[in-house]
UniProtKB/TrEMBL annotation:
Protein name: Adenylosuccinate synthetase
Annotated cofactor note: Binds 1 Mg(2+) ion per subunit.
List of catalytic residues: 49, 77
SMART domains linked: Adenylsucc_synt
Entries under NCBIfam families matching the protein: PRK01117.1 (NF002223), purA (TIGR00184)
Species classification: Archaea, Methanobacteriati, Methanobacteriota, Stenosarchaea group, Methanomicrobia
Assembly and interaction partners: Homodimer.
């Protein structure tokens, strides 16, 4: 037991010394020792699809709570366990362990997609009950009109953003505009119908203006009410749960979606997602103070990929790009679209490290580089004789710069059965050590395949 000691000086004379103090009260209050916070944040250090789901799944057994803090079902986290592949979009990747799972109010949620995931997991032997999953009452609900507006708006753009047409952006617009429907609303029939009556007219007008069917605005009401009834027992206060857990000395893992360069503020606008994807968003999206964060882990591929439009300086539209795409299975989890592939981009990595404050990194898909005779790392950019080692802030400027490469020898040995850093072929070890040296952040984990056993600590 620790004690706080307070000396109280009372009734002091004008001249104060030890002999003129009339009375001294010694008050001893017992103080409960605060448990050390164990709050870890995981984010993607590139454009998403870095393998965050795999890393979260690997770490989840060490945590009491795994919480999703932003994005929606535009994210796709793939977990491979015991020969089965689980493609998750909303449920945190720690679902196959005993951790409590939370969906925070910083997310936007399509309840139909959530129900599909719960059913898929049940079919594979994992039943997700309310004691397993909690959904914050303030979580924004994606409505049919959000999806319609997303698709209609993207079709009208001269320069496409490359959205997933899942209504994510328009759900966030309503969150910021205070016209959202929340989880608490669909769990209560009267609340839901009242909110929809307020919102539907403006959505009908917006859909009609874009050439769509305004009836979509009031469609699927009964379906949403039925789902709301089923999900009502899952409703919780995520911020309160996490803060209480941390006070009790429990461990919390915050799982991000997408990647740092898709951040709505700091990413390659306008080719970004609709939420903040960097580590600071975990605190805001879950309602946890930043002083409680212990670790921030960045997940980064041994190369780089991007889905949709926007600058990608090291993109390889050649045999190298095809090698990375085919060997890496680089097709979107959510959309199935082929990903654009390129060499590792150090300037972009540097910016991610600044944006997130990574304490360590997890390097994924090292095995995909097997078979390439020469490897390249972009260490700087060049434009008309000007050399820079950090990305320009504006996307149109970034698109103009050309990569300046460092070359290394590749390797032919397969890595998928290896279980430690020392087992890697020499050139693979040199590649990892060079990335660590260039990024100036420790690489804590290395992944050489999609399975659980194919990730090890460096």
């Amino acid at each position: 037991m620790e004690f706080t000691v307070i000396w109280c000086f009372q009734s002091l004379h004008k001249k104060v010394d030890l002999f003129t103090i009339k009375r001294i009260n010694l008050i001893i209050f017992p103080v409960k020792k605060q448990a050390k916070n164990m709050f870890t944040i995981i984010t993607g250090a590139q454009f998403g699809d870095e393998g965050k789901g795999k890393i979260v799944d690997m770490m989840a057994s060490q945590y009491d709570i795994v919480a999703r803090f932003q994005g929606g079902d535009n994210a796709g986290h793939t977990v491979v366990a015991e020969g089965k592949t689980y493609k998750l979009h909303l449920i945190p990747s720690g679902v196959l362990f005993d951790a409590r799972l939370l969906i925070g109010p910083g997310t936007v949620m399509n309840p139909k997609i959530l129900m599909e995931e719960i059913a898929m997991l049940a079919e594979n032997g994992t039943v997700v009950k309310p004691d397993k999953l909690g959904i914050d009452a303030k979580t924004s609900i994606i409505m049919p009109y959000h999806i319609a507006l997303d698709s209609l708006r993207e079709s009208k753009r001269t320069v496409k953003i490359g959205t997933t047409n899942r209504g994510i952006g328009f759900a966030y617009v309503d969150k910021v505009g205070r016209d959202e429907i929340q989880m608490a609303d669909i769990a209560d029939r009267n609340r839901f119908l009242k909110r929809l009556e307020e919102i539907a007219p403006q959505k009908e007008a917006a859909i009609r203006e874009l050439g769509g069917d305004p009836k979509i605005a009031r469609s699927e009401v009964d379906n949403y009410l039925e789902i709301g009834k089923k999900l009502k027992p899952y409703v919780t206060d995520v911020s309160m749960e996490i803060n209480l857990a941390l006070k009790e000395g429990k461990k919390v893992l915050a799982e991000g979606a997408q990647g740092s360069h898709l951040d709505i503020i700091h990413g390659t606008q306008k080719f970004v997602t609709s939420s903040s994807t960097v580590a600071g968003s975990a605190c805001a999206g879950l309602g946890v103070g930043p002083t409680k964060v212990d670790k921030v882990i960045g997940v980064i591929k041994a190369y780089i990929t991007r889905v949709g439009e926007g600058p990608l300086p090291t993109e390889q539209k050649n045999d190298v790009g095809e090698h990375l795409r085919e060997k890496g299975g680089e097709f979107g989890t959510t959309t199935g679209r082929p990903r654009r592939c390129g060499w590792f981009d150090l300037p972009l990595a540097r910016k991610s490290i600044n944006l997130n404050g990574y304490t360590s990194m997890a390097l994924t898909k090292l095995d995909v580089l097997t078979g390439l005779e020469t490897l390249k790392i972009c260490v700087r950019y060049e434009l008309a004789g000007k050399i820079i080692d950090y990305p320009p802030e504006l996307s149109d400027e970034l698109a103009k710069y050309k990569p300046v490469y460092m070359e290394l020898a590749g390797w032919d040995e397969e890595l998928s059965d290896l279980e430690s850093f020392t087992e890697l072929p020499g050139n693979a070890r040199e590649y990892v050590k060079l990335l660590e040296q260039l990024m100036k952040v420790d690489i804590e984990y290395i992944s050489v395949g999609p399975g659980r056993k194919q990730t090890f600590k460096k």
